[in-house]
Structure formats: structure tokens, C-alpha cells
Amino acid sequence: MAQARKSVNLKENSGNLLQIAPLLRDARNVQILALLENDPRISVSELARRVGMSAPATRERIQRMEEAGVIQGCRLEIDHAALGYPIVAFIRVRPMPGKLPKIAELAVSLPQVMECHRITGEDCFILKVGLDSLDNLDVILDQFLVYGQTTTSIVQSTPVAPRHLPLPGKK
User: Fold this and answer.
1) May I ask the CATH class of domain 8-67?
2) In this predicted model, what pLDDT tens digit does every residue of 91-123 receive, in sequence order?
3) Does the global pTM surpass 0.85?
């Protein structure tokens, strides 16, 4: 049974209040996470050796962090261009009145939608989509235009690839 997520407030020098899970107050847990970030496929025995613990104790710590929601599954990343989708675009959607749920339903149903976020501001959604050609951008946009107004930006390059936030004590 998953434990409820708990957090503790810590003040930084900048005065910002941070919420850090109690399990991350333990330096060994942070060390385990750092090693897993660098190599998610590392074996538990190698992980245990590097943190100076037994394999069962290390496995138990990983399991507790998974149950607390600190570690959320393993994710395989496949290059979208290798799959035949070399173009990535971000689409912002401003729904017409009463059409908000339809946008989310449509986003879920389209396999080209890699991410969909509900956001603040005049646009209520931002979607990340993969395209096999620019011609097919219209096909995607036309489906969303039934429910609202769209604004599209095509990704030219990615100077900062998706990455993890800094771990506690590792700024």
C-alpha cells in the first residue's frame, strides 16, 4: 500500500520555501537517487556497493521511495525522429466556452500528442506533438480548432534537453 506523500518545509538562503519529501532528508537516499539518475539501469547490487550498504537494504530504500512517490517508475525514452516523427511542435489551445473537457479528451486520443498540460493564462492547454511532416500539422490543428483557437510553435532546436531537477544538497 502506497504511503501518503509527506513533505517538510526548509528555508533556503534566497528565502524561497521548499517542499522536500522526508525520505530525501536522508543523505544515503539522495546518493541512491543521484546514482539512479546517472544510470537508471544500474543493478541493485552495484548500487548497494557504491553507497556502502547491503543489496536488500538498498532495495528496501528504493521500494520505500517508490511507495512514497519520490521515484515514479522507469521511463524509456525513444528518439522521436527514429520513429519517423522528426518535427516537434508546441500547440497552445484556448477553448471555446464549454469545450475545455473536449480538448483533454482529444489530446488523450491522438497518438502524436506526446504531452498535454493544463496551464494558466488565456490558453488553457499546451501540447507537445510529434509530426512526420509539416503537412500533417494541419490535420492535428484542424481537430483542435473545432473546440477552440490554437497557436503553434515549431521546435527548431533543443538547447536544454529534458533533465532532472537538482537533488537536495546538490545545487
Assistant:
1) mainly alpha
2) 999 999 999 999 999 999 999 999 999 999 999
3) no
- Within the chain, strands assigned E span 8-11, 17-20, 87-95, 113-118, 125-131, 148-154
- Output the CA–CA distances (angstroms, integers) from residue 66 to 1, 3, 25, 35, 36, in the order listed: 11, 9, 16, 15, 13
Pair 116, 91: CB distance under 8 Å: no
Return all residues near 150 (Cβ < 8 A) that are at least 6 apart.
91, 92, 93, 94, 141, 144
pLDDT tens-digit profile of 19-57?
A: 778 888 889 999 999 999 889 899 999 999 999 999 999
Residue 68 DSSP SS3: coil
Concatenated DSSP letters of 3-37: PPP--EEEE-TT--EEEE-GGGGSHHHHHHHHHHH
Return the CATH fold of 87-154: Alpha-Beta Plaits (3.30.70)
**Among the listed residues 139, 154, 138, 150, the one whose alpha carbon sits nearest the alpha carbon of residue 86:** 154
Please give the distance of CA 3 from its chain centroid, rounded to a whole number: 21
Cell numbers of 65, please?
521511495
Domain boundaries, the chain: 8-67, 87-154
Record the cell numbers describing residue 12, joined without a space. 533556503
* Alpha carbon distance 92, 106 (integer Å): 14
